[in-house]
Amino acid sequence: MENGEEPSAEHLSKTYGGAAIMLENIATVVRTYRAELQTALDALTLHDVEAVAREILDAYERGARIFVCGNGGSAATASHMACDLAKNTAFGATPRVHAHALTDNTALLTALANDLGYDQIFSEQLVQAPIAASDLLIAISGSGASPNVLRAVAVAHEAGARVVGITGIGGGKLAPMADVAIVVASNSMEIVEDVHLVANHAITRAVRTVLQARRAVAIS
Q1: Which of 73, 76, 83, 211 sits CB 3.0–4.6 Å from 193 for a disulfide?
Q2: How far apart are CA 36 and CA 41, in angstroms?
Q3: Which pLDDT does position 27 carry in this prediction?
Q4: Domain extents for the chain?
Q5: What is the overall mean pLDDT for the chain?
Q6: Is there a contact between 25 and 16 (Cβ–Cβ < 8 Å)?
Q7: 45-219 — its CATH code?
Q8: Percent of the chain residues past pLDDT 70, beyond the cut
Q9: What is the rounded CA–CA span in Å between residue 192 and residue 39?
Q10: φ and ψ at residue 214, rounded to 5 degrees
Q11: How many angstroms separate the CA atoms of 12 and 51, rounded?
Q12: pTM
């Protein structure tokens, strides 16, 4: 096959073991996915995203710690969000946003899962911290039904802390348990996780913009 030449149906059939996989089929899947993602993004309300940004700014104003948790793809988003909030909002001599992912200490996570149970890997960390009434928990669960995330929310509430829920697929049990929630309007976990990351970036930029504006006023 020459460089730049599209594979023929015969080539695709041989390559994929005789399966009737065609380039147009792949393109159709990609176009459908893109359309589903756009629909979910369009349904993401400014009010909900702004409310989460306000919770983070309020936590910052009171010098609170922000804990983030989630499983699987949501664990990756939790780590990503804690990183973005801690680093991408830091500039000059401004006090930092204290963001911590409960997903990042592999030794601790596996010890807690082995000794106490997987459902306690986040809640026990909050007990150990310990989480205070002034702190904020950001709980991420695509389904809104992850037992260990819900248990962390319960511990946060017991301490009097505020809770942000980031979820989808109808919100599950997480959305009604949270003080503020983003519920992605999709039943596809892939789409839900994509929108969660977009929301994270929008929230981080909003927080950074407000903190930069406050610093500009303070030094003017």
Answers
A1: 73
A2: 9
A3: 85
A4: 1-43, 45-219
A5: 92
A6: no
A7: 3.40.50.10490
A8: 89
A9: 11
A10: -65, -40
A11: 49
A12: 0.90
In 16-131, which ranges are continuous DSSP H helix? 23-43, 46-61, 73-87, 106-115, 123-128
Beta pairing class for 136-141 and 180-184: unpaired
pLDDT reported for residue 137: 99
Cα atoms in the Cβ-side hemisphere of radius 13 Å centred on 116: 14
Residue entry with tokens 């592999």: 106
* Token pair 């929108």: residue: 195
At 158, which amino acid appears?
E
Token pair of 103 as six digits: 């997903």
pLDDT for the residue 46: 96
Query: Distance of CA 26 to CAs 11, 14, 19, 123, 202, Å?
Result: 15, 17, 13, 42, 30
Map tokens 């309020």 to a residue.
Answer: 58
Q: How far is CA 105 from CA 101, 109, 122, 138, 198, in A?
A: 9, 6, 11, 17, 25
Q: Which two tokens stand for residue 4?
A: 């730049």
Neighbours of 191 (CB within 10 A): 22
Query: What residue type is 164 in one-letter code?
Result: V
Cα–Cα distance for residue pair 67/137, rounded to 1 Å = 5
Place of tokens 């500039």: 91
